[in-house]
Please model this.
Amino acid sequence: MTILVLHVGDGKEDYLLEAEKEYIKRLKPFCVYKSVLIKEEKLPDNEENEVLIAKALEKEAERIRQKLPKRCYKVALCVEGKQLSSEKFADFIKEKQSEYSEIAFIIGSSHGLDGRLKAECDFRLSLSEMTFPHRLTRPILAEQVYRAFSIIAGKKYHK
Model:
């Protein structure tokens, strides 16, 4: 199984990158975990122009589509997505693992994801009702994927 994480924007915070790397290392016995950077569209500082934001999201969505494998299960991470407990997320991974060789998780920029791209995805996932910086999403997702595979394998990590 390959887990592909397409993320818009580069995380520059070393501590977040180290946390993600730690879980990617732990995931090696369970899956291939790839983190793929998608270039973030630049907007003027403090720009809240909805038209400019929508155009930026469209451009980012096109870059994401170019990196998506042809046959994968696509999961958009977004606030309106469904929340799953760790156990339900493990069930979700296990179910998709039997049907697909790749699951692609898509993390947008601080402005989110293009609506059409979200509609093209097979599932929408929310990690929490709380709001997190989008760069923090990568290590949180990596940890939850590790937790899911640990649950599937019956390991003690989840306790």
Summary: The chain has one domain: 2-158. The mean pLDDT is 94. The longest helix spans residues 134-153. The chain has five helices and five strands.
